[in-house]
Amino acid sequence: MAILVLGGAGYIGSHTVYELIGSGADVVVADNLETGHREAVHPQARFYQGDIRSRDFLDRLFQQEAIDAVIHFAANSLVGESMMNPLKYYDNNLCGTKVLLEAMVAHNVRKIVFSSTAATYGEPVNIPILETDPAHPTNTYGETKLAMERMFHWVGKAHGLRYVSLRYFNACGAHKSGKIGEMHQPETHLIPIILQVPLGKRKSVSIYGEDYDTRDGTCVRDYIHVTDLAQAHILAVEYLNRGGESDIFNLGNGVGFTVKEVIECARKVTGHPIPAISAPRRAGDPAQLVASSEKAKNILGWNPQYDDLETIIASAWNFHRKR
Ligand code: UFG
User: Fold this and answer.
1) How high is the ipTM of this complex?
2) Distance between CA atoms of 244 and 69, rounded to whole angstroms?
3) pLDDT confidence of residue 307
């Protein structure tokens, strides 16, 4: 039986496919290639181009392949964009997941691991954030991911489907081979934007807000290496295979860095002065997001390997320089 990776040509999806194939799994990838890259799909995975909002596409896929579990990355994930175009997020993230769940129930596929996000919490009440903390998203992206989690909950109750929702904090870094990494078009994420300066693609990096209630006034985020995130998906599938109950897990390092600290670290890694300029706050940004991942460590047996920001940025730098 194969594992179906939806959105397996995207950033976190493609890294997960590499880890799955490395672990000996049989992998099928589906992606509409709207933001994903065909060349990022591992050559040993069977690839189908199509959209999860198409029931016909999903029916053909489930008929053609013997799928045991689904890992679902096929969603839009930009905080800023979600505030400007909320309906795009309701359409792809929520409506897409509705069609997917209908197809899974119809084809008797009952296990799913799902990309959720720290953005479900909104402004946290505690740092580090626990899975039991209140979830009040401050942006449309987080709102749609929270609604997707609730959809899994109710569909699970009605149809015996089990899910693991993985709430990622800030995914970053690149595969150790340098073959795959983060490449969005246009790029909006902090670390790849910073690295565009030493690559000569931009003159400076803008700091979105320096008046937050944090140690240097800039937003604090918990940066977690994409390969560590990928490993968590394999552990989540194993957990469901062992009969584990539906559950939600944070995935982060438990250490927060400000935007200014990330820029400083990138200066050290690249040896480039990387000029930074002050810019207004970006809509929807909470001041601080730092995870407690104790639950994933205790229950899934997750053991992140890349806990050092310099190593993480160096892996991203290695990928971008090779390109
Ligand atoms: N930032 C800048 N300048 C930039 C880009 C970003 O100052 O040019 C700041 C942002 O305002 C934010 C921080 O850098 O404070 C990180 O921004 P990213 O866009 O890299 O990431 P986000 O924190 O907005 O969002 C990411 C994922 C979400 C996830 C969230 C959880 O995109 O899917 O992390 O922390 F929900």
Assistant:
1) 0.96
2) 13
3) 84
- Both tokens of residue 227? 């390969």
Identify the CATH homologous superfamily for domain 2-172+224-251. Answer: NAD(P)-binding Rossmann-like Domain (3.40.50.720)
The residue nearest atom 19 of ligand 1, judged by CA position, is: 189
Question: Known catalytic residue: 141?
Answer: yes
Q: What is the CATH number of domain 190-221+254-322?
A: 3.90.25.10
Give the type of residue at 190.
L
Q: What is the mean pLDDT of residues 259-266?
A: 98
Residue ranges covered by each domain of the chain: 2-172+224-251, 190-221+254-322
Type of residue numbered 189: H
Distance 280 CA to ligand 1 centre (A): 14
Alpha carbon distance 51, 34 (integer Å)? 9
Confidence (pLDDT) at 43: 98
d(CA 243, CA 245): 6
Q: Is the peptide bond before 124 cis (omega within 30 degrees of 0)?
A: no
